[in-house]
Amino acid sequence: MNNRLGRQTVTFDNPPIIIETASTVGQKEGKGPLKSTFDVILDDDTLGEKSWEKSESMLQKKTALLALEKAKLQQSDIDYILAGDLLNQCVGAHYSVRDFDIPFLGLYGACSTMTESMSIGSMIVSAGFADYAMCLTSSHFCSSEIQFRNPLEYGGQRTPSAQWTVTGAGCAILSSKGTGPKITHVTTGKVIDKGVTDISNMGAAMAPAAIDTLIAHFNDTHRTPDYYDMILTGDLGVVGSDILVELMLKEGFDIRTKHKDCGKMIFDIEGQDVHAGGSGCGCCSSVFCGYVYRELKRHNLSKVLVMATGALMNPMIIEQGESIPAIAHAVAIEI
Amino acid sequence: MNNRLGRQTVTFDNPPIIIETASTVGQKEGKGPLKSTFDVILDDDTLGEKSWEKSESMLQKKTALLALEKAKLQQSDIDYILAGDLLNQCVGAHYSVRDFDIPFLGLYGACSTMTESMSIGSMIVSAGFADYAMCLTSSHFCSSEIQFRNPLEYGGQRTPSAQWTVTGAGCAILSSKGTGPKITHVTTGKVIDKGVTDISNMGAAMAPAAIDTLIAHFNDTHRTPDYYDMILTGDLGVVGSDILVELMLKEGFDIRTKHKDCGKMIFDIEGQDVHAGGSGCGCCSSVFCGYVYRELKRHNLSKVLVMATGALMNPMIIEQGESIPAIAHAVAIEI
What we know:
The structure is a homodimer. In chain A, a hairpin with a 3-residue loop joins β1 (4-5) and β2. Chain A is built from nine helices and 15 strands. Chain A has two domains: 4-175, Stage V sporulation protein AD (Peroxisomal Thiolase, Chain A, domain 1); 182-334, 3-Layer(aba) Sandwich (Peroxisomal Thiolase, Chain A, domain 1), CATH 3.40.47.40. Chain A is of the alpha/beta class. Chain A has helices at 52-71, 91-97, 113-126, 141-149, 202-221, 237-250, 262-265, 281-297, 315-319, and strands spanning 4-5, 9-11, 17-25, 40-41, 80-84, 104-106, 132-139, 164-165, 168-175, 182-187, 230-233, 259-261, 278-279, 303-311, 326-334. Chain A has a seven-stranded mixed beta sheet with strand order 1-2-10-15-14-11-12, sandwiched between helices. Chain A has a six-stranded mixed beta sheet with strand order 4-3-9-7-5-6, sandwiched between helices. In chain A, α1 (52-71) crosses α2 (91-97) and α5 runs parallel beside α6 (237-250).
């Protein structure tokens, strides 16, 4: 078998190129530290729709269309669109792509979906099954809040470890040719459940999955954290990031100077009252497709490991006393 | 670009082989016409679990373990498991695999998930990214009924077009080597929404997607229905199958003698009071991994097109007045 490194990692003879990205975020995200790096900041988080689910769907659709426009491509150029979101039965994605004339592969990896999409997309493009593949995910604070937590009008206190679901979407177009950052390796995560049951502490639930995938990536590739300019996690937030860095150190990998987390970067943690930081499929996708992609194109970053993390429960199964399984998928990107 | 035929189809230089399958069904399915073809018929649809969601998860887990056992493989032999189900946030799959030591890719394609899984799995195995990939899906009548429709205790009438969600799971192991039926082509569907809004008529909502993918498959491969011994849809049921056959005829493709539908095959439609037939991710997966795989291995069938179909809505978005988008993914199998 070619292309396989160790148990969880594959590498590419023909690394797919991220030829273009698009990112859209909501009003709150548009006031955060990364505000200058997004393509679009919404002035109306409803996007003119009558429900939050439809708003999220429209957010995803507009972001995909913007990516096509920026790449100067037509829908007919795209061989596959790989998309997902957090909503029940992934309706954010399904209603966003139903007007598209593009073969569709639906994914669910909770907040890990963006790197799951880029992982599968990379394999499909690299192997010659596609010239172009679009990777697309979104989340919306309002649709997530009512689905996973409480009605928007409910004035409950949030715990210090709670995270704020990002209103945002990101779309990356992978291609077998062109110029831009390349995806060189994909490390696919396992489902890891260390028994955390607090749904207001997703960071703690997801950190063990991030650790598992990160160690697998270093072992499979024989790389150390020094190899990368940035090791970017999706939405571990303040609590999960601290756990990751501390436990990685105990495992012999010092990522202290390399680690960044999209959930910590997208908001002013103190000033925007987001407690432990941002979360959601749209957190990693908007930060990667915005800030990180720009920095790669400008050669301010040249080697980045992007690892979105997802918590794979639903509210009902937690009420039934279950713990929270999680997963993390990593893609290594170089320019 | 190699391997691509037309807009939606890919073919394989190294066709992946379905080296083994496993199927498990519930008590009602175990009294149907295909009862002798399943590996396991449950004598207790709860599987000893305290909630229907956990029952479904255990159903999927046991089916995966049985497939490994039948194939004489260890978890460490499997490079990827690609799984999904109908439950919110796919908890059927996530809780089934959390004890597995296998890299995981989570999919959501509603009842189309089995062929989505086999499509992506085929590409990954054929391209050399994996020696072995497991494709796994499930559905459970009780967990689906309470999530999508009514409490189990609710004694409402079902409409004639309503379908009965299959309690069942199927697991197929794909490999780059070995003997067995091969996956020669994959045709990936687009999301198609023709405006059907009746969630008690999934067959009508899904039939247009099945037609779209089937026409794409014939056009891309330059094949006609005559090429196949069987054209198998997932769960169009009685209503959707009639629509499919009739509209395909109008499009110039006579599939009348070739078409079978898992939802019509798994139950005695009249005798088991299932109205328009079976449905669910577990319908196509248990019938394919049971009856169809056996017939292929016995050379009673040699060329089969398997196309699972999925309705991509959730109950909330239908209440918001939306119609039902659907999708169908086809895999061509030969021995």
